[in-house]
Amino acid sequence: MPETVAHATPFQEIPRADWAALAQASESPLTELELVQLRGIGDLLDLREVAEVYLPLSRLLTLYASAARRLHADTTRFLGTASVSTPFVIGVAGSVAVGKSTIARLLRELMSRWPESPHVELVTTDGFLYPNAELERRGLMDRKGFPESYDRRALLRFVSQVKSGVPEVRAPFYSHLAYDIVPDAEVVVRSPDVLIVEGLNVLQPVAPGQRLAVSDLFDFSVYVDARTTDIAGWYEDRFLRLQRGAFANPKSFFHRFASLTEDEARARARSIWHAINEPNLLQNVLPTRARATLVLRKGADHAVSSVLLRKI
Q: Could you report the per-residue pLDDT of 136-195, keeping only the tens digit for each?
């Protein structure tokens, strides 16, 4: 039915069943073992979800990237110039615990298996968080993950260099075990066909004092969406799994939580969620959803229920 003015939207919503039909009976190129290695803690992603949701998405992204290269070729012919096509840059945003890191890793693997984009790199914005010592100095340790806790100029410079075609660009390395930037460690990106940039705040608009936002350099962006109450539950469950696993490592920043009882761990997880992650989601992350090219809407079972694609 035609849209009324009151209900006009820049997105078309595609139900899960219709989106899954776009897979055209293609088999997932991933094995169960590969999926286990990609899946994040607490994520319920399975091979059916890969085939019905992420395989079509990877194909759509590849079509967009191929179209960008054709446009580049047409433009250079029109201008009578000669230049090399630059990487296609994809942003992946969403809340803590919504599954965006798993999705970014999965898209890297799936896109790299399409012949049009064999070289796909992934960088997370965690590497552009200020070191803990600097966050402490600025009084931001309890706001880690908020926009102001990132070196946004460094992130913008990094993506600008990749997008400009610089052959080799380096980013800081972040350790989730140490919960800090690792000195003298780097992530090196070398002329990819596609660069995926994943992080909480990658769709933020221009920051005060800057003329450009990192999102201005994206060719396509994905926002992973779910009800806030569902995400809160996923965060709590993930915290418990980490408490029983990674937190047991004496080198873990969160080792002090390893000895908590289950009730104490749940209480701690809820406290962190309400003090830090929920306010960041509501104030900074969720308002950027409408800036995305595509929104993956998840249900309470962590499965994608529908896809919203920006109209062309």
A: 999 999 999 999 999 999 999 999 999 999 999 999 999 999 999 999 999 999 999 999
| Under 8 Å between Cβ of 202 and 125 | yes
CATH number for the domain formed by residue range(s) 13-306:
3.40.50.300
Bridge-based pairing of strands 194-198 and 88-94 is: parallel
The DSSP letter of residue 274 is I
Which two three-digit tokens encode residue 119?
């070289």
What are the two backbone dihedrals, phi and then psi, of residue 308, each rounded to the nearest 5 degrees?
Answer: -110, 120
Let me know if 301 is exposed, middle or buried by CB neighbors in 10 A (0-12, 13-18, 19+).
exposed
Of the pLDDT bands very low, low, confident and very high (cuts 50, 70, 90), residue 294 is: very high
For residues 172 and 179, give the distance between their C-alpha atoms in angstroms, rounded to a whole number.
13
Three-state SS for 204? coil
Cα–Cα distances (Å) from 111 to 4, 59, 117, 120, 309, in that order, read: 37, 7, 6, 7, 18
What is the spatial distance between Cα 235 and Cα 175, in angstroms, rounded to a whole number?
19
pLDDT value at 274 more than 90: yes
Tell me the HSE value of 233 on the side-chain side, using a 13 A CA sphere.
8
* Cα-Cα-Cα-Cα dihedral sign, residues 200, 202, 208, 209: positive
Structural contact between residues 234 and 97, judged by C-beta atoms closer than 8 angstroms:
yes
**What is the pTM assigned to this prediction?**
0.94
